[in-house]
Amino acid sequence: MVNIFLCGDLNDTSVSQALISALPQYGGVRYSGPNRVSEYGSSPEYFLYEYEKLPEIGLKRGMVLFKNGFPPQKPLPCPPGFLYVLESKNVNAATLLKGSEATAVTCGTSPKDTLSIAGLEDGTATLSLQRTLNTLDGQVLEPHDFNAKFNTLISPHQLLMVCAALLIAGVDSFKEYKL
Q1: CA separation (Å) from 94 to 142, 146, 176?
Q2: Predicted model pTM
């Protein structure tokens, strides 16, 4: 099972809803968040935990996605088998990771970001993986462009977070992502 921790403002459900919508197409998701535990899809391959702040993690591998509304937090040990996803403008998440040995995956519109949006049209997007990325299962992804298709309105932040999660989980990006 792929562990995904989503951290930030609990009133902002945009990223959790985008993940809950997308992940059942890739094996299903079990969600644990404020006041709710649910399962979507058959035999979940993903476990999505939602917290305001990053909890102490005692698991071997997974990923942490930081919402832009992530509050300031004192540093915690960052487990080595985890990847940390944040938009480059997310100062609080960057400060939390600074000085740690955590592998950060930045998202945004800059050529310095690991993942960026190269093109956006009605219902489709082209994304660019601009740096080599090691997935949780040990695959090495070289820089490349890939496509994502969506049927509902999705923000750039939602798009980047969901696509980063799928890449890190090892979902084949040479097949169009469906969000």
Answers
A1: 24, 26, 30
A2: 0.95
pLDDT over 90 (residue 139): yes
Residue 75 phi, psi (nearest 5): -60, 145
Which residue from 171, 113, 114, 112 is spatially nearest to 147, judged by alpha carbons? 171
Model pLDDT for residues 47-105, shown as the tens digit of each residue: 999 999 999 999 999 999 999 999 999 988 888 899 999 999 999 999 999 988 899 99
Q: What is the DSSP letter of 91?
A: H
Q: Which residues contact 46 (CB under 8 A, 6 or more apart)?
A: 1, 2, 4, 23, 26, 27, 28, 29, 30, 169
Collapsed DSSP state (helix, strand, coil) of residue 95:
helix
State how far the alpha carbon of 81 is from the alpha carbons of 68, 74, 78, 159, 168, in Å: 23, 20, 9, 24, 12
